[in-house]
Amino acid sequence: MTSDILAADAPLRVVALNCSLKPGSAESSTQLLLDQVLSALAEHGASGSQVRIADVNVAPGVETDMGDGDEWPGVREQILAADILVLGTPIWVGHASSLAQRVIERLDAELSETDDAGRPILFDRVAVVAVVGNEDGAHKATADLFQGLNDVGFTIPAQGGTYWNGEAMQAVDYKDLDETPESVASTTATLARNAAHLARVLRAARYPAE
Q1: Residue 124 CA neighbour count, 13 Å, CB half
Q2: How far is the C-alpha of 187 from the C-alpha of 17, rounded, in Å?
Q3: Can you list the domains of the chain with their CATH numbers?
Q4: Cα 94 to Cα 137: distance, rounded to the nearest angstrom
Q5: Is the pTM above the cut of 0.90?
Q6: By C-alpha distance, which of 195, 191, 125 is closest to 153?
């Protein structure tokens, strides 16, 4: 019992995947929102890092390792080591970015991976979503990503998505704002609080094996 309590209270590990189409050398609204999510999670004892998917060679496919040059296995190791996955994406033509879709496609391989108890390997992990865009589509992108993440085994906390949509057909991005809108800040705070709580619940009471 004591060891279970200690495990539940131990620091949580987070990995945030930035699916901006911009390389790491460019400013990114997605990165700004992910920075804010990570900061909010840190307030609840959850810390980690970001991976800019545009800077990683994630080969197309639905296997855990697609062979020569595929850098997904390194990203996968970080996901498997984390309690919480944060998937961040911009909106392009009303949808999540192509890199976000590629992440979901690569995660599909985990459906055939199981742990020592025979359970899907992504069980007991939490996933949340962060979306930015200056056009409509945040709700649809969030719904699509939630479905894919849940399909492969992640658990989604209550209000586990945060987003900002600017006025359609305008040039203002999230990173251009003078300050974070209160509605976004409060939503991000709720996401972080619920994600950390759920991750600790799943640590203390894992999903049952078959």
Answers
A1: 21
A2: 19
A3: 2-204 (3.40.50.360)
A4: 5
A5: yes
A6: 125
User: Is the dihedral angle over the CA atoms 64, 91, 193, 27 positive or is it negative?
Assistant: positive
How far does Cα 202 stand from its chain's mean position?
A: 17
Q: Are 133 and 89 in contact (CB under 8 A)?
A: no
- 111-114: Cβ within 8 A, 24+ apart: 111/151, 111/152, 111/153, 113/64
Instruction: Give residue 69's identity as a one-letter amino acid code.
Output: G
In this structure, what is the dihedral angle of CA atoms 42, 76, 90, 173, given to the nearest 10 degrees?
40
List pLDDT tens digits, range 6-44: 466 789 999 999 999 999 889 999 999 999 999 999 999
User: Tell me: the pLDDT tens digits for 109-137?
Assistant: 999 999 998 999 999 999 999 999 988 89
Tokens of 165: 């949509």
Question: How far, in whole angstroms, is CA 36 from its chain's centroid?
Answer: 13
Cα of first residue to Cα of last residue in the chain, in angstroms, is 23
Q: How many CA atoms lie within 13 A of 161 on its CB side?
A: 17
